Amino acid sequence: MSTTKAFWPPRSTRRRVSHRVLRDTSRKRPSWFAVLSYLFLAACGNSGGISGTVREVEAGPLPGVHVAIDGLKTHREATTDTDGRFAFQNLSAGGYTLKTDLADYVGDMKVVNVSGGSTLNTEFVLHPACLEEGSYVDGGLRWGLQAAQAILYIRFVAVSDPDRWIVNRQCIVGIDHTATVLSILNMGPDSGSITKTVHIVRDGRVAWNTGEEYIAFVRWEPAIGRYRPIAGPLFMIPVRDGKVVWDRTDAPNIRNGDPVSKAMAGLFALLPSARASVR
């Protein structure tokens, strides 16, 4: 008995089935987002920072100071906290300019270099804004005798360049003059402690000349260890060839052209009444 094999589907109707290779979808190409994220993290890993403090020259930390930083494609701003601290993070390696600003203080600037992966520490020391020579009021000779702690006949022997001086927590621009004391008006026990050479600071940028002589009404400033005229040049009486250049009208016993010795004696005579008026 013969048998016949059956095929399904029939050979005439069978189609060729192509074998497709399935790819492993678990290995996808990285997306642009992933690449950018990686680059960002890498950049942050190589970034640096700046940490700093701001303080006053004769005091402690300064809060509220405006601090600005500028660099290549970088501009940021910060304000110091109650401890005078500020910080800038995530900075690219490179050079930056730091600037500080606070009302009534002289601003400062620094050029710094930030290294990747590290924090640079820096400090600013601010000076109060300095006053130049201002206006003075002549309170009269009686007031001058009350306000002065010493009245000296001096000759200037050296003059320095203008500098900053902190007096009573205030910055002034002034010039230090070295003077030889030729005579002293006896105003009390402190007069005996005055040395033969003294320093007198004149406010402003105009100096007296070496060799010039004056009768100087001055006060001692402990903060700078020097004397200052009580009212700028108003109570600096010029002396020429041993005689006073006197243009005041409130001392009838002193006249223009009087010898220095007579003028000093006239001032001494006025001391009791001047000092008595303040008791």
Write the layout of secondary structure elements.
Blueprint: H1 32-45, E1 48-56, E2 66-71, E3 74-79, E4 85-91, E5 94-101, E6 105-106, E7 109-114, E8 119-128, E9 130-131, H2 141-147, E10 150-159, E11 163-167, E12 170-184, E13 197-203, E14 213-221, E15 226-233, E16 236-240, E17 243-244, H3 260-276
Parallel strand pairs: 1-8, 9-12
Antiparallel strand pairs: 1-4, 2-3, 2-5, 5-7, 6-8, 10-12, 10-14, 11-12, 12-13, 14-15, 14-16, 16-17
Helix pairs in contact: 2-3
Structure characterization notes:
The chain folds into two domains: 33-128, Immunoglobulin-like; 131-276, Beta Barrel (OB fold (Dihydrolipoamide Acetyltransferase, E2P)). The longest helix is centred in the last third of the chain and has 17 residues, at 260-276. A hairpin with a 2-residue loop joins strand 2 (66-71) and strand 3 (74-79). It is mainly beta and 279 residues long. It has helices spanning 32-45, 141-147, 260-276; strands at 48-56, 66-71, 74-79, 85-91, 94-101, 105-106, 109-114, 119-128, 130-131, 150-159, 163-167, 170-184, 197-203, 213-221, 226-233, 236-240, 243-244. It is elongated, with a radius of gyration of 41 Å. Mean pLDDT is 85; it is low at 38-42. The chain contains three helices and 17 strands. Helix content is 14%, strand content 42%.
